[in-house]
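User: structure tokens for this one?
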Amino acid sequence: MFKKKKSNGSSFAFGLLLGGALGGVLALLFAPKSGEETRDEVANQYRRLTEESQDLVESVCDHSLEMIDKAKEIAHTAQEAASKFLDGERDGR
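Assistant:
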């Protein structure tokens, strides 16, 4: 059977974050501002990107934990099914 690969949006969020960072850097480099204004802008962009990165990491961790729980459930169900099958084989069914 073919399984459709699910996209969880993490790659999109990473691309968005990377594009935002690159756009911010280019804007700072080509904007006609004083040194102090540029430094303030860089500091603000750094803070914003740090917060967004932390949010992204948290989201990926949460999603990973959900996937681990789902894998544990599937493994438990498979173990129960295999146990029932083997018990039936032993009983001569």
